[in-house]
Amino acid sequence: GNSVTQMEGPVTLSEEAFLTINCTYTATGYPSLFWYVQYPGEGLQLLLKATKADDKGSNKGFEATYRKETTSFHLEKGSVQVSDSAVYFCALSGRGGGADGLTFGKGTHLIIQP
Amino acid sequence: SAVISQKPSRDICQRGTSLTIQCQVDSQVTMMFWYRQQPGQSLTLIATANQGSEATYESGFVIDKFPISRPNLTFSTLTVSNMSPEDSSIYLCSVRDRVNLSAFFGQGTRLTVV
After folding, report:
1. pLDDT in tens, B44-91
2. Which end of chain B is more exposed for a tag (fewer CB within 10 A), N or C?
3. Which residues of chain A are within 8 Å of residue B43 when distances are taken between CB atoms?
């Protein structure tokens, strides 16, 4: 079955540091890949996505590239801010055309210190 | 994007009782998804609710414990039956955009069973 593995936290960084959160997956075929973010006290929000190999998703300064050869979708940001402190989830869906649910990683708690 | 409203937002329930969670979407959707997020854990798909047919449950979840209704294209309910403390979790309703494949989530129902 499908599975997602992401680095576990908490990850603590200083403001303006470079961020990488690793995510690898196991799936048959060509899944769609997502990063979701959960800010303190808020619901789950889509951060970015990629639906085919070599696609790069980007939003709010975050980027992730769909690497089929390494089955990875690592999240990166060049300069983090205190406001980026949140829990980040990597997720995938199969090729169900939106008719299937998502498989999530365990989440990475990111703490940015001023 | 879809706007999803869940009720109640939180509840504290006695063991052995049942709680029904409501999910309302601001547009018509074919599939609605129910997830569970146990304390400190990731999201796990419980079932997929398709209007006009029985819900499809994931491994480890059964209809007797988590009955689902889907009376129309904008509404669904999830019941957590005969609750025990192990059912204490956040329960989330979700829909997916069939075009861009993104998933959208309600704010969740935080359930505590005592």
Report:
1. 999 999 888 889 999 999 999 999 999 999 999 999 999 999 999 999
2. C
3. 44, 89, 91, 102, 104
Cα separation, A47 vs B108, whole angstroms: 18
Q: Measure the CA–CA gap between B98 and B108, rounded to whole angstroms.
A: 22
Question: Alpha-carbon distance A108 to B5, whole Å?
Answer: 26
DSSP summary character for residue A69: T
Å between B7 CA and nearest CA of chain A: 14
Q: Quick one: tokens of A14?
A: 């200083």
Strands B10-13 and B109-113: parallel
Q: Tell me how crowded residue B6 is: count the other CB atoms within 10 A of its CB.
A: 19
The C-alpha angle with vertex A72 and arms to A66 and A73, in degrees rounded to 5, equals 55
> pLDDT of A16-68, one tens digit each?
999 999 999 999 888 999 999 999 888 899 999 999 999 999 999 999 999 99
Strands A108-113 and A11-14, bridge-based pairing: parallel
Task: Give the number of beta-carbon pairs within 8 Å between A and B.
Answer: 63
CA distance B100 to chain A (A): 8
Facing residue for B45 by CB, picked from A43, A98, A101? A101
Contact between B106 and B83 (Cβ < 8 Å): no
ω into residue A40 within 30 of 0, thus cis? no
